[in-house]
Amino acid sequence: MTVIRTTKGPEYARLMGLGVARGEVTVTNDDVAGPIDSSDEWIQQRTGIVTRMRAKPETSVLDLAERASRDALIAAGIEGRAIDTVIFSTITHPQMTPAAAPELGARLGCPTAAAFDISAACAGYCYGIAQADALVRSGQSTYVLVVGAEKMSDFVDPTDRSISFLLGDGAGAVVVGPSDAPAIGPTVWGSKDGAEFVRMTHSWLEVRDDPTTPFPTLVQEGQTVFKWASFEMPDAAAKAIEAAGLTPADIQAFIPHQANIRIIDQMAKRIGLPDTVAIGRDIVDSGNTSAASIPLATERLFRDGQVKSGDLALQIGFGAGLVFAAQVVALP
Ligand SMILES: CC(C)(COP(=O)(O)OP(=O)(O)OC[C@H]1O[C@@H](n2cnc3c(N)ncnc32)[C@H](O)[C@@H]1OP(=O)(O)O)[C@@H](O)C(=O)NCCC(=O)NCCS
Questions:
Q1: Where are the alpha helices (DSSP H) in the chain?
Q2: Within a domain: residue 195?
């Protein structure tokens, strides 16, 4: 009987190097409060956000991704041509096709790498890590570049009170490659019926069929998403700790998606993380950058000296879909 040969990779994969880029422009709460009848005080109290970083008009989501990726390659000590797979998580690449990943690969000097985008919104980075880990350990890929990049400001309606004031622009990238020791725990992931909770205002077909349809922008049912994130996501995060054979006491850092400081704090409490755990709170300065928010918050913890290479970090992304993904990783 003819048998198909399959690949077999190294036993473990790890995060090898991190790079990030934030939008160049600091946007204050006062800058966004006017059109939504809000205030600096309300936004800070309800979300923790003091500023969000937004990209200049001429900076594209691909530009942000390229900046982050170049730094990730340097940090990992890897040449662009060694990358054999590019995974680009985004919901703000302005063209449905082609995907952003092949162009990013071409810019980085890996023009023949397998390259594809993931649409998993604020969970996109953790979805990417799950796939990179599996690709490396299966022997299908050796070095995978995972990028979460968003130019949310392109899809913001300044008069929308539900989500626009939360959003910032940025990118975070890591190289995932082979490892001698376990460094990425199993991913606990899933989805839930809730397409209407975080969504675009209109589909492209509505725009095509009715010329008076406004340009599609993001909206959400804030309270519904808030409750889902605060009450259901701690369970997923706790399962990721358990799946990695760990307890909360083994975790050095908690780096959740940066949606709302109150969600972050409630999650940490419900998971039962010790007070000594460093918590990613980059939302305060960078806002909610969807797929970029976890790597951005990771970089911030490094910069502030709150984590070091090898620390075990619990990361969890959650958002539009609804979708979520959590895993414990050893920091690069
Ligand atoms: C959006 C969010 C900040 C709103 O905060 P909230 O505490 O839930 O606010 P509520 O909707 O309960 O509204 C409370 C009050 O503030 C008012 N309000 C709502 N949005 C406001 C805004 N942007 N500025 C000022 N006031 C606002 C409401 O009108 C309401 O007033 P009332 O008490 O007089 O009726 C919060 O729900 C949230 O962060 N949700 C999900 C997180 C997220 O970012 N999801 C994205 C995908 S992960």
A1: 29-33, 40-47, 61-76, 100-108, 124-138, 204-209, 222-243, 261-271, 283-286, 293-303
A2: yes
209 strand-pairing partners: none
d(CA 62, CA 173): 12
Contacts of 95 (CB under 8 A, 6+ apart): none
Single pTM value for the model? 0.96
Judge if the beta carbon of residue 225 lies within 6 A of ligand 1.
Answer: yes
Angle of helix 100-108 versus helix 61-76 axis, rounded to 10: 50
CA of 43 to the centre of ligand 1 (A): 9
Domain membership of residue 244 as a residue range: 188-330
CA distance linking residue 263 with residue 231, whole number of Å: 9
The total number of structural domains in the chain stands at 2
Atom of ligand 1 nearest to the CA of 225: 41
Residue 100 confidence class, pLDDT cut points 50, 70, 90: very high
How many residues are present in the chain? 332
At residue 330, the pLDDT reads 98
Alpha-carbon gap, residue 173 to 80, rounded angstroms: 13
Which residue has the least CA distance to atom 20 on ligand 1? 161
C-beta 293 within 6 A of ligand 1 = no
Q: CA–CA separation, 226 vs 298, rounded Å?
A: 22
Contact 289, 150 (CB under 8 A): yes
Task: Return the closest-CA partner of residue 213 out of 222, 200, 194.
Answer: 200
Query: What tens digit of pLDDT does each residue of 253-290 get?
Result: 999 999 999 999 999 999 999 999 999 999 999 999 99
Decide which of 179, 205, 227 is a domain's last residue. Answer: 179
Q: Are strands 323-330 and 188-191 parallel, antiparallel or unpaired?
A: antiparallel
Active site positions, annotated = 122, 257, 288
Q: Is any atom of ligand 1 closer than 6 Å to the C-beta of 219?
A: no
Alpha-carbon distance of 50 to 173, in angstroms, equals 24
Q: Rounded distance, CA 82 to CA 249, Å? A: 37
CATH number at residue 171: 3.40.47.10
